[in-house]
Write a structure and sequence with these properties.
Number of strands: 6
Distance between the termini: 17 Å
Helix content: 25-40%
Strand content: over 45%
Radius of gyration: 12 Å
Order of helices and strands: HHEEHEEEE
Strand order of the largest sheet: 2-1-6-5-4-3
Length: about 100
Amino acid sequence: MSVDQLSEPAVRAFVAAVNANDRAAFQDALAPAATMSDDGTERDLAEWTEREIFSSAGHMDVESERAGGRSLLVRYRNEALGEMRTAWDFIIDGGKIARFETGQA
């Protein structure tokens, strides 16, 4: 599924920013106090995204979406971990991502 087919604009902006390795666009997609978890564990968003996305060339190939585009099934890859199937769930507030939860699917 291409990024431009994603239903939820905030999620579409998030995925596009990840795939472009664009830190500014990524930050713009997030609400000011956004939070996240990985495999059920709360993480520091800035530290996690630097390690898992930006410094390791993270990329999201979306397989499918549900819940109006707020839940994705993704083949995620980066230079550190290789490729894995992951689930991503997003909470949107005011057109921005207030929280995302990811983990292996």
